[in-house]
Design a protein that fits this description.
mainly alpha, binds glutamic acid, three-stranded antiparallel sheet, 10% strand, single chain
Length: 512
């Protein structure tokens, strides 16, 4: 096989959303898996829908996700330029070739008149298609004489259409292969003669896309399902130029969280979920947070995106970008639409947090934790605290708050929660026992064993005994592993809390 080259070819009409990012990611993964190159090409032929901030948003998003192009407008290789607006001159030659060979023609139809025709067809419940059946009745270089054509051309008001089917052609069908969908057969008689060149001197998407994929030696075209209807035309263009075709793969839709319908940018607001990798500033007063700003780990976010429409075929779900490269297989991309599940995104984040070395979290967060709770902490045990905490948070930024929360104690809360346990003299005895033992017992395991034995002696259920101790030490009724908390708190804090809690318990029993 010749060199593997894949491209992501977004149109800079707005921010890059997760659908576009997934396309970029899959292209990147396939390219890297096959030792190939990943190229970013900006398809900015549609001047009307151009958004001047979009390219930066696309680039910054890729950069944040570490999906780095080998060639792009800002890191050009030898196939440049990488913005279609800078390749304008290239396309004219190719469209001229098609005209010379009768595979494309000039059309001079008035836009208004075409709209009227469209409406008239709609009224009859039909769709107007500009093609082999009616092109001879419309205003173009096929129906008009050479002289009339020249006059119209001199006026400069024309578009160029592709001649997609010729009456009485041998082949009425085109059959092609898609890596995800298999064999596809299209009736050529139903295709319209798409505009491939506009009178602003710019090609349309179809021509520019095919010409660039050929000139940039793209080996695989991997893109969203919405481009599947254009595939027949693209095949015809390759054939018209007599060029070798790339491999094609059309990715399934990303569906709304409800599973019904395609996810749209507006769904972000509607469901209160992020749809952009990084923040997008819509205008001076309106901006949307991205996954980055919410606090997602890059690897977790990329892993989440990778799984919308793909799976490795095993139970494994957690992958770093590098691991994805090693495992990604185009054959395992699914055909049907895949739901965007934000809860799953948070789960991926949690799983990736667990993978972060405690030591590196310690470097990042221990000062912040100590600033807030060093008076409670057995400072040798900060690692243990971080380990305990990182299992319990969705986002890294919650680490400090959660760590403090785990070690928290509040008398009022303790009083409030006291009514929820079965308080009696024996419970007080048990807590007193713990208070006396904790001072002497150095080994955590022995302490635990002693406490469990005492529960047995006093005939107290494990659930009641543990809840009571937790309440006395943290003022809460459930939470992280209690004996780990006991290990993390310093002795002085344990003592003070127990004394305070015991006092509250005595008072309550006495007043009852
Ligand atoms: N410019 C097209 C887009 O915005 C690219 C489609 C393709 O990859 O061929 O999605």
């Amino acid at each position: 096989m010749s060199k593997v080259r894949l491209r992501f070819a977004p149109s800079p009409t707005g921010p890059l959303h997760i659908g576009g990012l997934r396309t970029a990611l899959y292209n990147y993964l396939i390219a890297k898996r096959l030792d190939g190159s990943f190229i970013l090409r900006i398809e900015d032929t549609d001047q009307k829908r151009f958004n001047k901030n979009a390219e930066k948003h696309i680039l910054d998003s890729l950069l944040w996700c570490k999906i780095l192009p080998d060639e792009s407008p800002i890191s050009p290789g030898k196939f440049g330029p990488y913005r279609q607006s800078e390749r304008k001159e290239i396309y004219k030659n190719y469209v001229d070739k098609l005209i010379d060979q009768g595979k494309a023609y000039y059309a001079f139809d008035d836009v208004e008149e075409l709209n009227l025709l469209r409406k008239a067809h709609e009224k009859k419940g039909e769709t107007f298609i500009y093609n082999w059946e009616n092109r001879k009745d419309l205003k173009n270089s096929i129906s008009l004489s050479d002289k009339e054509t020249k006059v119209n051309l001199d006026n400069g008001n024309y578009v160029i259409r592709f001649n997609s089917f010729q009456e009485k052609s041998e082949n009425e069908f085109i059959v092609f292969h898609d890596e995800i969908r298999g064999e596809i057969k299209v009736d050529l008689k139903l295709l319209d003669d798409k505009i491939i060149f506009k009178n602003d001197g710019m090609p349309t998407y179809h021509l520019a896309n095919v010409v660039d994929d050929h000139l940039m030696e793209i080996s695989h075209v991997v893109r969203g399902e919405e481009w599947l209807p254009s595939l027949a035309l693209h095949h015809l263009l390759y054939e018209a130029f007599n060029w070798e075709k790339p491999i094609f793969a059309h990715l399934p839709l990303i569906l709304k969280p409800t599973g019904k319908g395609k996810l749209s940018k507006r769904d972000g607001e509607k469901f209160g979920i992020p749809v952009y990798p990084i923040e997008w500033q819509e205008n001076k007063n309106l901006s949307y947070l991205g996954f980055r700003e919410i606090g997602f780990e890059i690897d977790a976010f990329v892993n989440f995106i990778s799984m919308i429409g793909w799976n490795p075929g095993t139970e494994d779900e957690i992958f770093s970008l590098k691991e994805l490269v090693n495992n990604f297989d185009i054959k395992r991309i699914i055909k049907s639409g895949a739901k965007y599940d934000y809860e799953k995104a948070k789960w991926f984040n949690l799983e990736h947090l667990k993978r972060i070395e405690t030591e590196s979290l310690k470097v990042e967060f221990s000062n912040l934790i100590l600033d807030r709770i060093d008076n409670f902490l057995n400072t040798n045990k900060i690692n243990k605290l971080i380990e305990l905490t990182k299992e319990r948070i969705n986002f890294k930024n919650d680490l400090v708050d959660e760590a403090c929360h785990i070690l928290d104690y509040d008398s009022n809360k303790m009083k409030e929660n006291l009514s929820k346990i079965n308080l009696n003299e024996d419970i007080i005895k048990l807590i007193n026992f713990f208070k006396n033992t904790v001072g002497n017992e150095i080994e955590l395991n022995n302490l635990k064993e002693d406490y469990f034995n005492e529960m047995k002696n006093l005939n107290i259920k494990v659930g009641d005994g543990m809840k009571s101790l937790r309440l006395c030490l943290t003022s809460q009724l459930n939470g992280a592993d209690l004996f780990t908390i006991i290990d993390i708190l310093n002795k002085k804090t344990i003592n003070t809390r127990l004394e305070n809690s015991l006092k509250i318990m005595y008072d309550k029993i006495r007043n009852n």
